[in-house]
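BUG: 3D viewer hangs when loading the predicted structure for this chain

Environment: internal workstation, default settings.
Expected: structure renders.
Actual: progress bar stalls at 90%.

Input used:
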Amino acid sequence: MSQSRIPATIVTGFLGAGKTTLIRNLIAGAGGRRIAVIVNEFGDMGFDGGLLGDCGDADCRPDSIVELTNGCICCTVADEFLPTMEALLARDPAPDHIVVETSGLALPQPLVRAFAWPTVKHRVTVDGVVAVVDAAAVEDGRFAPQGDDPARDHDDPIEELFEDQLRCADLVVVSKADLLDAAALDRVDAIVRREARDGTPSIHGSPKGLPADVLLGLASGAEADMVGRESHHERAGEEDHDHDDFVSVVVEPLAFASMDVLRERIGAALSVPGVLRVKGRARIAGKPAAVVVQGVGPRVETYFDPAEGSGRLVVIGLTDFDTAAVSSRLAG
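Structure tokens produced before the viewer hung:
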């Protein structure tokens, strides 16, 4: 591998798995490395890039973070990702390392292959694909059923994404491991081993983050080593992945009466069949600071953010979820 090529890490994982938190901690512990971050969002409203840019660390400067919000990066490689990568590579000084956070609905495979394109392949290489897995969600059966049932429905788009993201990984980070007991965590680890390629290492995440040297320096050269990483549809000889199964809407609620009311309304929206994720910023009546909202499954996380920001929430779910019901439950 040429030492002149800039290493790039692709961070994949389903909605709410903890990718942004992992990258925030990585930047904070980068040890002086110049790390450029490309953040891809599913839908029309950017959010995760802002969370990285205001992480409170000098290395989280806004000019080191590029946010793509025009769809899912695995479907817009030529139009979105490659021009962004070329612009990063033209910087002086160039980044020491590039981190790409994919949308939770993205396949890493097309993105890995993009690093073999003529305009970038001599300047950058895939150091590693890191898949972040939500341990609590896996234990709840939301991504993959317990056991290896040959009759399970492999047409489930969520399960397919889970399989494909793990299959491409060079390293699996099992996040939210602290929420499970030892027996449950063993079950999750068994599912990860089942879905990942043989020999793929996995590690349990920590709320304090993982050392940068654990995540960087994998030297996989994945763009030249795609055998065994193929997606579900590629293995079946079908057409490329698309996102017809998923949709996002942006809701701009009025200010909520209290934090308790906000959390109750977010929980109610998440309970609408087909809703997978609610995230963004909301307002509390009488409070100058906005509230950062992160909701997935039954979990709702909120905290005040001193940064200015209007109340806008993005809701992501299966195509047939009741958007009117969600909007009414998120009314301030």
